[in-house]
């Protein structure tokens, strides 16, 4: 299942990093501001044509926006994980790391071998 909220979040991050408003992005790619808002919140989907226009306008890669969906995007996922904890203190990072380790162990136990 595609995580549209994650894709929208990545679009929003890329847009804000470039200092672009939702209005500017909407105008540049030929959609309404409400459409961009819905995309960024995961409340809506986007056509491939509009998605490509967004990628081109923001100057980012498709992998960057789809890193959780594309299996070959491992380096981008690693960067995404690092970004998630970048503003955490040491205690928070330790808790997150412990949680991920426990989750990984549970997944390994309960995932059938291929």
Please write out the topology.
Blueprint: H1 4-17, H2 22-29, H3 33-41, H4 48-58, H5 62-66, H6 74-85, H7 90-110
Helix pairs in contact: 1-3, 2-3
Query: How would a crystallographer describe the biggest sheet?
Result: none
Q: C-alpha Rg, in Å?
A: 17 Å
The level 1 CATH classification of the largest domain is Mainly Alpha
What is the number of E strands?
Answer: 0
Percent of residues in beta strands:
under 5%
User: Going by CATH, what is the homologous superfamily of the largest domain?
Assistant: lambda repressor-like DNA-binding domains
Q: Indicate the low-confidence ranges by residue numbers.
A: none
Named CATH topology of the largest domain: 434 Repressor (Amino-terminal Domain)
Number of domains: 2
Helix content, binned percent: over 70%
Task: Please report the number of helical segments.
Answer: 7
Average pLDDT over all residues: 88
H/E series: HHHHHHH
Query: Could you tell me how far the N terminus lies from the C terminus, measured between alpha carbons in angstroms?
Result: 20 Å
| CATH architecture title of the largest domain | Orthogonal Bundle
* Structural class label: mainly alpha
Shape: globular
């Amino acid at each position: 299942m595609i995580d549209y909220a994650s894709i929208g979040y990545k679009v929003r991050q890329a847009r804000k990093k470039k200092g672009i408003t939702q209005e500017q992005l909407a105008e540049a790619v030929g959609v309404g501001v409400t459409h961009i808002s819905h995309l960024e919140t995961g409340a809506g989907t986007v056509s491939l044509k509009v998605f490509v226009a967004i990628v081109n306008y923001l100057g980012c890669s498709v992998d960057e926006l789809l890193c959780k969906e594309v299996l070959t995007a491992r380096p981008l996922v690693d960067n995404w994980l690092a970004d998630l904890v970048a503003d955490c203190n040491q205690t928070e990072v330790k808790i997150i790391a412990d949680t991920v380790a426990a989750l990984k162990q549970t997944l390994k136990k309960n995932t059938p071998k291929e």
